[in-house]
Structures
1.
Amino acid sequence: MVLRRADVVDGALELLDAEGLDGLTMRKLGAALNVQGGALYRHFPSKEALLDAMAERLLAGVGAPLPAEMPWLDQCREMAERLRVQLLSRRDGARVVAGTYVSGPNTMTAGGRAIELLSSVGFPPEEAAWITFAFFYFVLGHTIEEQALVRLDPAHGWEARLAEAQPVPSPALASAMLAMAKADPAERFRYGVRLFLAGVERRLEELRADGTSGV
Amino acid sequence: MVLRRADVVDGALELLDAEGLDGLTMRKLGAALNVQGGALYRHFPSKEALLDAMAERLLAGVGAPLPAEMPWLDQCREMAERLRVQLLSRRDGARVVAGTYVSGPNTMTAGGRAIELLSSVGFPPEEAAWITFAFFYFVLGHTIEEQALVRLDPAHGWEARLAEAQPVPSPALASAMLAMAKADPAERFRYGVRLFLAGVERRLEELRADGTSGV
DNA sequence: ACCTGAACACCGTTCAAGT
DNA sequence: ACCTGAACACCGTTCAAGT
């Protein structure tokens, strides 16, 4: 029973769920696949390359075609939702993706889909790319924090840290941050997406106003 | 010449510049401070605690008072600028901060300042906190990528990865991503900030429209 | 109180040798 | 071609013992 590249990635994602990113080691992964740690270097030149492949796998489906009849802002929301779901699908998934860059087909397809979508409604391709990446940063940052908060001792989580804070925060600040810690992360995410897309919409109106006289 | 907590943080930030986050080890830091690696555990309970203190130090000044006569949107921009500058002030600074949570006075002051600013123009405190964090995620994601790109071989950087991409990206996508890689990161950052703040502004108008009849 | 020296339990990675 | 076994050069962390 030979070990294929894809089997290694499968096993690594399983182990990621079990141990977290910090506990994911080549030796443990080898053991999970009934192989010595060093044997994995027949399939990947380094642990980093394996993590890249894991990140690629995590982004599967994010760039899948969107319903053409859907309004473009909803299509943007849908892509954001998909990306978040995929990043959260594995423990520390967001951190895994954050450590890698461009490369694989899933990543390219997803990025391409977003740039294409924004271009189709009137953004110059370059600006579409800027928007796509800015948006990606928000989603990544949000999901990294989401996954970090899950691992904090729920009782001794954010409330305790706030209580220990120096200087003592104002009551208004304290209650704002507490409310934030208690809020549903999915709702907070959707709020951020809405905010960002409102800015995108406004920018498009601006572009169209400039364009009507110029073109 | 005793070693103080602050001296360890100073040395760690120096070493961070020299070695990067991955090269920052307790043994090397000890050597830089003319001490055994293990001795550092008299000052910090763990490497993680040291990294937290480094993150705290990096955020110094971000929450400093803003000119009262400055329009609030410019104050928001100014805080974003400050945060970016601080994160970029040390090699891998953004990644250091991304690995930590709340806690210290600089962090609290900065967060408090932003929430206070947004509250003062009419956002409910809780919503102000949501906006602050969403914005923080974008800045962090952007600066992490900025610092990662600096370290990529400039010649074999993004262009080469794009050329190797599977499936081959459309010419439009390829040129969009190439233009993006060549663009001034500071300009791209300001663009993202503007986009986000346009959304914030629109949301505030919405709130005020609701409020006039309700209150 | 602060540091040394040495150890413990790990890492990622390499490589001759096996099958 | 793929894997084993063992090694190399490291890690973070602990702790008796020194000063």
Note: Residues 64-151+183-210 of chain B form a domain with the Tetracycline Repressor; domain 2 fold (CATH 1.10.357.10).
2.
Amino acid sequence: MSKEITSRSENYSQWYNDLVLKSELADYSAVRGCMIIKPYGYALWENMHAALDKMFKDTGHVNAYFPLFVPKSLFEAEEANAEGFAKECAVVTHYRLKADANNKGKLIVDPDAKLEEELVVRPTSEAIIWSTYKNWIQSYRDLPILINQWANVVRWEMRTRLFLRTAEFLWQEGHTAHGTKDEAIFEARQMLDVYADFVENFMAVPVIKGTKTANERFAGAEETYCIEALMQDGKALQAGTSHFLGQNFAKAFDVKFTDKNNKLDYVWATSWGVSTRLIGALVMAHSDDDGLILPPKIAPLQVVIIPIYKNDEQKNQITQKVNEIIKELKALNIRVKYDDNDNVRPGWKFAEYEMKGVPLRLTLGSRDLDNNVIEVARRDTKEKSTISLTTIVESVKDLLYQIQQNIFERAKEFQRLHITKVENWDEFINVLDNKTGFVSAHWDGTSETEEKIKELSKATIRCIPFDAVEEQGKCILTGKPSNKRVLFARAY
RNA sequence: CGGGAGGUAGUUCAGCCCGGUAGAAUACCUGGUUUGGGACCAGGGGGUCGCAGGUUCGAAUCCUGUCCUCCCGACCA
């Protein structure tokens, strides 16, 4: 395998692809648009999964699991939702294969095994879950229902990209039912905060919280809240969404409850999800031409230790010392690996672990052992320093913390430098074409204008930020009045 | 679904225009020397040239069809 990856500045897409493949996060599969998540990528996902799952449970949620298949009649019950997803659904029509009489050793779909009702492979689970909630909810005493599921979903997209848009992907989807509108809105906002907290504090990717415009809203939602992240090529990426679904699904699936006053009403709903797409965001937000840069909190490996020796005696001395260090690091729950593989040389290992984004590398040689020191190399800054063996464990702990902070600060600064206020159309296009990033501009609030801007510039309104300040201005396209700025960007 | 590029060893690719013994690098295996930034020497194994037809004495190479992948668009809750 070629060792070099494409440069970030030359071809960002190619660089991203190379990186995902060569860092062994994932691979292409034989199935169109699908992806194989390799053990290293899955270990990363497991760490993300664990952190998120804890946050969900800390906010009162429980996990459950619902079926992969959705009968078509259920799927079509909520019209807006069904219509939104209809053109990207995989559909099961038969339940059996049989030997092909004309072609020995081959199989054909058995025409006699046609399903009476087609099954849609879930692109999202609202339909199947709400048809279930109908049976679970009668009284306000049954509410709220705060359920999350970890699952795979299938969306037959025209064009796919590793992690960012695959035909099948892993995600979590929360589906909650509430007795009041306010409680449901609170839930949707709370979960958006959970996502922002996770993405910023674990993944070290800064995000902007806001509301989607009607055009960009989830099919079937009253309001969609989102977190938007910025990639190093200046394009935006939707990192997570949380929807206030109103009573749309309750009405579509006839989910009513009796309140304290013995009054019958439809329940209020939310749904929220993040997916393996976050891994794509992580890669594109931090990595450089030498490979991945992973934040310590979720890196599968936080520290790698590489020995340098000339003979078995030296190796044994080093290994003995390393084992002491590992024992202490493990006691602090630090994920550490000692790579004493004799088949590859140190230089090879250095490059390999840099490609994989391991935050800290310790190198211990006989020379160091004599001086009671060890070499420490940071992945984020590529700085190398020599540290006393006596305090190494404390130093590692400190450095991991510093790396986590530094990666976030760096990305935050990049984001700050790439939010540009513009006042007119020429500036708008100029920033999108040359500077890239988010563009903060006035918009007249209509779907038509939004659509027109998208057509002319390929930029979409990423969100109406929660912290947008009241300010009089004129729409960059129509000149009509506007009272706050929204964030535009070209996006993935 | 439109435009472009491609499918040959595990991987990256050359060979194709102009038909005639299946190639390189890298990876892998064996032995040895090495080991502080992707080592070196010697030897070795590995391929239905995407698939199906056709032309030809002969096809990786030419023709037709087909499937798949990547890139750029369109689509993307």
Note: The radius of gyration of chain A is 26 Å.
